[in-house]
């Protein structure tokens, strides 16, 4: 059960990190050069 919880925690952290990176990258690119096709 411990391993299961550990896997879930790691998965959540990875997901949040990638989500934050994606959002900050989108904002960064939006500020530099607005591109309607880049937004999802």
UniProtKB/TrEMBL annotation:
Q: Which domain of life is it from?
A: Bacteria
Pfam families assigned to the protein according to its UniProt record, in alphabetical order: YhfT
Protein name from the UniProt record:
Inner membrane protein
Which species is listed as the source? Escherichia coli
């Amino acid at each position: 059960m411990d391993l299961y919880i550990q896997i879930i925690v790691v998965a959540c952290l990875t997901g949040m990190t990638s989500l934050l990176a994606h959002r900050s990258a989108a904002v960064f690119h939006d500020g530099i050069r607005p591109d309607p096709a880049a937004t999802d």
